[in-house]
Design a protein that fits this description.
With 670 residues, the protein is α+β, with helices and mostly antiparallel strands. It is built from 17 helices and 40 strands.
Length: 670
């Protein structure tokens, strides 16, 4: 259902005007129809049907006290399956209200309200909106808007949104609201409701991906930078300016042996008359990660120019494990970027660095130096940069970093440093691909359900998400999807006992049951200690682990499937992946079968290498052996290519949308 752009937007205003989002859409405005529902609009009918299907009768836990008193609530619908631009937002609840207005101007009008303040069971829509904002790569100040809200399969609530500015509020002057709306409409990707083109998340120049351990921060960066040139480094307590930027270091070269005869230095010869050579230690300036990326970025800029320069990424893992003030030094000033993407304030390079840069940049030529110089009041900045005199970050140099929010005793990042970065929160969510099970004795327990239950306790005890467990906090044993009891105790329980509950105590409860208590052999209550998870020979105590699982409400099973069970669509609760290619429907009994058949058709029509480039690492000519991976690879038709198939509907859908967009295919997938 298309909604007016002014109905749901964030962080924008027009000077001199006080207009705020409407937070609602009318579904029956026509007075001649007595404000009846617009049942001639298919998308409106789908919304009403879906809201009816997800409606609740318990209004006691509904809080709309911040809303208008002139509205009567007809239906309250609570959605747990919330999607943004076709990607599911995990751990999210959103409430829609069907309300009837009783104001003088709109008596009897029905509208769907989706206001941020609507709260059910203590959870407000604003919490889900914050997750959407993070998924779009926006900071809390970023400007974005929703242009379509739809309900699919009667239970899935879909939002379609566009980012206007990922980092800053958009303030307009000397225009009308209509002009802003026209500008924003031009940003909406082509497509009709129910078949939206994928909106590509804006790429920030300096971004820090942060979150709890094991949430996939590094993996997220790896996915977003696939097929890009990436230089990666890791900060640690001993990292300093010289190891991040560059410094003189000893190196070995082969040099002739010299001796002095009289007052002259002469080379020493071997018996056969050849010069005698021996290793000699000299000192040379060696570029480290920052200067390596800096030089490569300028090389790419000179090749592509102002508008077409290829991106160069510098990725810093664990940025808060190093002293950023010490490591960046005067480079800190370069992190202020102007609207064109260049450093606002170039800095002077020291003599050694200037000499090194001049040597490495001397053969580069910038075709349109005025495009850069004009940003600095016409000063000849370009010549100073290529001579190595000035340091200036080019617009194609991206610096991205990861930060683990649970780390203790690390270096704090001051607010001045923080404000120069876009912050992207990576929430805790289940894996689309992997299906890890914990093997305890002869039984298996669902790893995803374990962390879900344990994270509820951690959040309750610590009042924070920082200490919670991400899905990849603990990976399965090599070549399988099973986490052994030994690995589970040594990695997971060790962390929980020593880094989390040691500071808060072990009196936590879940649904009224003590989690870390058990009856000992004398039938007395006892607290589980970490050592109680081992028996005398150092092996895991299976009995104690099972007690913990029981306290968490988890049941073991006798077998663990190699793959996630595919969603059952036979009862209509989950809609099968729907694809039309070249106007023809692609039939299949499962998401996987539909995806593979579609991919086979595309590979027949297009260069398979192009298809593989879009899909990325999940399509290869040399699939790993089953002992090397938990993914299943299937041959794509008669081609030489194999594709990973343990991905689930969301992943298949994303691949197909990316193929449609990048290869300009006549393909519709939903």
């Amino acid at each position: 259902m298309k909604i007016d752009i002014t109905s749901m937007f964030f962080n924008s205003k027009i000077e001199g005007q006080t207009a705020t989002p409407a937070w609602g859409t009318s579904i029956g405005q026509n007075k001649s129809r007595d404000c009846r529902i617009d049942d001639f609009k298919e998308e409106v009918v789908d919304m009403v049907i879906g809201m009816t299907y997800k409606s609740i009768s318990d209004f006691d836990n509904l809080d709309v006290s911040k809303g208008s008193s002139d509205r009567e609530i007809v239906t309250c619908s609570v959605f747990q399956d919330v999607f943004l631009n076709n990607k599911k937002i995990e751990n999210c609840q959103y409430v829609l209200l069907l309300v009837r207005e009783h104001s003088k101007s709109h008596e009897g009008r029905l509208l769907i309200s989706y206001a941020p303040y609507i709260t059910y069971n203590g959870v407000s829509n604003q919490e889900c909106i914050n997750l959407m904002q993070n998924a779009l790569g926006c900071t809390p100040q970023g400007c974005w808007f929703v242009y379509d809200i739809s309900i699919k399969n009667q239970s899935e609530l879909h939002f379609y949104a566009v980012v206007v500015n990922s980092t800053s509020q958009m303030i307009y002057s000397s225009i009308k609201s209509r002009n802003r709306s026209e500008e924003w409409k031009s940003l909406i990707p082509d497509g009709n409701a129910g078949n939206k083109g994928e909106y590509k998340t804006p790429v920030g120049l300096q971004m820090i991906f942060y979150g709890a351990p094991g949430t996939g921060k590094s993996h997220t960066i790896q996915e977003r930078t696939e097929h890009e040139d990436v230089i990666r480094t890791t900060f640690h307590p001993d990292t300093d300016y010289s190891t991040f930027v560059g410094a003189y270091k000893p190196t070995t070269i082969d040099a002739p042996v010299m001796t002095v005869i009289g007052t002259k230095a002469v080379p020493v010869e071997n018996e056969d008359g050849s010069p005698r050579i021996e290793p000699k230690i000299i000192y040379e300036f060696v570029n480290q990660a920052f200067l390596q990326a800096y030089v490569k970025a300028w090389e790419k800029y000179c090749e592509g120019g102002f508008d077409n320069a290829q991106k160069q990424f510098l990725v810093i893992e664990e940025i808060n494990r190093g002293n950023c003030a010490q490591i960046f030094g005067d480079l800190f000033q370069l992190l202020d970027r102007n609207n064109a993407g260049f450093s606002d304030y170039p800095i002077k390079a020291d003599a050694d660095m200037a000499k090194q840069l001049k040597k490495q940049l001397k053969d580069l030529t910038i075709e349109d130096p005025d495009a850069i110089n004009s940003l600095y009041k016409g000063e000849n900045i370009v010549s100073q940069v290529l001579d190595g005199e000035l340091l200036l970050l080019p617009k194609n140099l991206y610096i991205w970093a990861t930060m683990n929010t649970s780390d203790q005793s690390l270096f704090p990042i001051d607010s001045a440093f923080k404000r120069r970065w876009d912050w992207v929160y990576i929430p805790i969510s289940a894996s689309d691909e992997d299906n890890f099970g914990i093997k305890v004795g002869k039984h298996f327990y669902d790893w995803g359900k374990f962390i879900s239950q344990m994270n509820r306790i951690v959040a309750d005890v610590t009042s924070s998400e920082d200490k919670q467990l991400g899905y990849y906090f603990c990976k399965a044993d090599e070549g399988s999807n099973i986490i052994s009891a030994n690995r589970f105790v040594n990695k997971v329980l060790f962390y929980l006992w020593n880094d989390v509950f040691k500071n808060y105590g072990f009196d936590a409860t879940l649904d009224g049951k003590a989690v870390f208590k058990y009856k000992n052999d004398e039938d007395k209550d006892e607290t589980m200690s970490f050592t109680s998870f081992y028996i005398s020979n150092g092996m895991p105590n299976v009995k104690q682990i099972k007690r913990l699982m029981e306290n968490l409400g988890l049941e073991g099973v006798n077998e663990w499937p190699a793959e996630k069970a595919e969603e059952d669509s036979s009862d209509g609760t989950v809609k099968l992946l729907s694809v039309k290619y070249e106007g023809n429907a692609v039939e299949g009994a499962s998401h996987k079968e539909v995806f593979l058949k579609t991919l086979e058709l595309i590979v027949k029509d297009r260069d398979a290498d192009e298809v593989a480039r879009v899909i990325g690492s999940e399509m290869t000519k040399n699939p790993p052996s089953p002992s090397e991976t938990t993914r299943n690879y299937v041959k794509v038709g008669d081609s030489d290519w194999y594709v990973a198939t343990r991905n689930g509907k969301d992943r298949f859908l994303r691949h197909l949308i990316n193929l449609a967009n990048n290869l300009e295919l006549n393909l519709v997938a939903q």
